[in-house]
Structure formats: structure tokens, C-alpha cells
Amino acid sequence: MERSLERAEDYFARYREIIPDYEGFLESLSEPLPLYFRLNTLKTKDPEPVISGLTRQGFRVEKTEIPWFFRVEPREASLGNTEEYYLGLIYPMTLSSSLPVYALDPQPGELILDLCAAPGSKTTQIAQWTEDRAVIAANDRRLDRITALVANLRRLGVACALTTVYRGEMYPLEVSFDKVLVDAPCSGEGRYRKGYEGELLYQKEGRTNLSGIQKGLLVRAFDLLKPGGILVYSTCTINPEENEAVVDYLLRKRQAELLDWEAPLPARPGLTEWEGRPFHPELVKAKRFFPHEIQAVGFFVAKLRRRI
Ligand SMILES: C[S@@+](CC[C@H](N)C(=O)[O-])C[C@H]1O[C@@H](n2cnc3c(N)ncnc32)[C@H](O)[C@@H]1O
Asked: Is residue 117 part of a domain?
């Protein structure tokens, strides 16, 4: 046990200066991640029967600060084999996974691209937020993950989404979108908990050039926007190379501007400097969410607009 925490401490030491209450952060890594679900309002807007059904099965369910999101104990349990899950009444997802869609602020009638969409937490949330009246292209490069996404769309009764299977960097430019979400593949440091050292070491050894992939995805996402269109970039990692550095790259390559947005959970501003390297001053408008401050997976979210 102690050995594993030491390894996490070694790994996160480089972030000591940018993680508020660093000791509290390290402590939180010993706790299992809290469990949450979203009530799928495309199927029901009444949480009571769902809550009493889950309570009868031994779960304790309480409201959160985010509408339609509920916290569940015991957090080590799985909701995946409950009747409520099979019926598509609930979608288990961490609380902070809702944040990119808050930034996107999807509206009925909009044409929206979810560039890295599988298994569909955010696609189905966009469908819910727009009451199934936007048109969503849900893309992922992996067919096996698209299969899971399609199963989720069916289970939740989403009608407004179609699927595509492109490498995001090569997404065809023939169609332009009102809004694009890039929930990028990332090193996932924000979801780390004690017991998953293998994953940390895996990231440390550097499986791929994640930052390079993220930059390619973000630039193509920008090029797919209509003038004035909105782009949201999110990751569940702490690493500034995968967050501010990626957005900074876009700001230098394209006519993009960062926008402020109201988050329903406590946030910290984006960094304007990392390891002696300055980032665009507008990056303070990006938001960092730390796992121990929100009791959920750590996230980074930046909202941008295409100027012309
Ligand atoms: C963080 S996950 C997305 C989670 C999803 N947005 C959700 O909320 O359920 C990142 C996804 O990006 C996909 N991906 C990785 N590289 C990609 C690429 N070059 N183009 C498109 N999708 C990619 C992965 O298959 C993975 O499903």
C-alpha cells in the first residue's frame, strides 16, 4: 500500500506548484473515486422512482450541485447491472465529465460535431440538453468504441445523433459545424487513484505523442467550424503539455479567441506559464478542475470561438 502511494508522489511531484492544496490532493488519491449517474431526461424527468428503485437495491442516492446528476454510495459498486441502467433511465458518468457540455452550451437546431465521442457520455448529454433537437455527428476513430457508443445511443433513446468513424485529424472539411467538441484522448491523470500505478508508469514511459495528436485534432476541429462557431477542448489530465500548450498552439496557428464561461463546479484559471515557457495570456480563461476540490475526476476545459 505505502509503496504504491510513494510512486504516485514521485509521479505528481512535478505538479506540486500548480496543484492547490497539494497535500490534500495526495490524500485524496487514497479514496476510491465517487460514483455518479446522470438521469436521462429523454426517458424520464421524474427522479423519484429511479431513486427508490436504486435504494431498494441497497444504493444510497443524493442530489448534486449539477441538475440531473446524482451521487451514489457505495462508490465501489457498479450501476451497470441495474434495471435502471438497462432501461436507459440512467447513465453512469463522473460529475466533471458534464463540464465540457456546459461550456459548449448546445442549442436545439445546431449542427454539432463530437470529434472524439465514444463511448458517448457527452454525445448523450448534448442530446439530453437539446431535448434531442440538435443534429450531432458523433465521431471516433475506433470502430469497437463506436459500437459501444451506438449501444448507448439506443439504450438512452437518442434520435438526433449519427456516427462517423474518421481519424479526427482527417475529418472531411466539406461540412461546417456550429459547434465542435474535442474531448481528447489524454494521459488521464485526473482520474488516477491509488492502486493504478501501472497506468501512471505507462503514461510516464510515453506511449505516444499525445500532445501532437491533440494539436492535430484541435486544429482540424477549428477548421470544421462555421465563422463565429464555438469550439470546446477538454481533457481529464493535469499535464500542461496536453492542456494549455495545445490551446496555445491553436491560438498561434488560427484566428481563435478564448471565451469565459460559467462553470457549475469550483474552477482554477488556466496557466499562462509552465516550466519557464509562457502561454498566451488569454489562457487564464481556460478552467482547471482539480479532483480533490470537486470530488470527481480532474478536468481541463477551454472554450474558444472562431473569429472569421
Ligand atoms: C476521452 S475519450 C472520449 C470520451 C467521450 N467523449 C465520452 O464522453 O464518452 C477519447 C476518445 O478519442 C478517441 N480517439 C483517439 N484518437 C483519435 C483520433 N485521432 N480521432 C478521433 N478519435 C480519436 C478514442 O478512441 C477515445 O474513444
From this structure: yes
